[in-house]
Amino acid sequence: MMKSRIQKVSGILRCLLGLLFLWASASKLANPLEFLASIYAYQVPFPEPLMKLVAIGLPWAELMCGLLLLANLWADSALVAATGLLVVFLLFTGQAWIRGLNISCGCFNLSIFGISETNPNLVKFVESVGFAFFRNIVLASICFFLLRSRWVDLKAAASLQQAAASLQQPALKRSKGLAVAQREPTRLR
């Protein structure tokens, strides 16, 4: 009963993560120059070609993670990749927040919901690096939970398989012994 609840919650969280990664990638793919400008705003001392490469490659990595998580294909690999991305996002948003940079995180485009016109202060808060830092902590924690629950399931399945194999071995030995005993001729006295 408890296991099925955890599996249901894990499936829901996996799908939500997938949707978030799809949303993040779509907004970056739709506006690549805007995303590049948000990368420059972090003021990190990386070469310009590397930052351009990140602006091109990161949205596609997020798109692949999102699709794989939603489809539950190679989910372990997608979760490891998503966790890695979120840890990197955590480091970048954290350093920007500590340095007091008043920039947009560049993660999501909230204008598709029409919020930017009706409540610009909410948009500014949600897109701030401080909010993004704590959001990334929560999302990375979800990834760690999902990875742990998947690895616990794999470990349990492996131990069940090992137990089943160990139960079959003595039965095979006994059956071989019986077969040998049945083939040996009995001596007459």
Question: Can you tell me about this structure?
Answer:
With 189 residues, the protein is mainly α. The protein has one domain (2-183). 81% of the residues lie in helices and 0% in strands. The protein has seven helices and no strands. It has helices spanning 2-30, 32-41, 48-71, 75-98, 115-118, 120-126, 129-183. α1 (2-30) crosses α7 (129-183), α3 crosses α4 (75-98) and α4 (75-98) packs antiparallel against α7 (129-183). The longest helix is centred in the C-terminal third of the chain and has 55 residues, at 129-183. It starts with a helix and ends in a 6-residue tail after the last helix.
In summary, what is this structure?
With 189 residues, the protein is mainly alpha-helical. It contains 7 helices and no strands.
Q: Tally the helices.
A: 7
The helix-strand sequence is HHHHHHH
Question: On the 0-100 scale, what is the average pLDDT?
Answer: 86
Termini gap: 63 Å
Helix content: over 70%
Domain count? 1
Taking pLDDT < 50 over at least 5 consecutive residues as the criterion, the unreliable ranges are none
Structural class: mainly alpha
| Strand proportion | under 5%
Any idea what the shape is? elongated
The radius of gyration is 26 Å
Count of individual beta strands? 0
Q: What does the main sheet amount to?
A: none
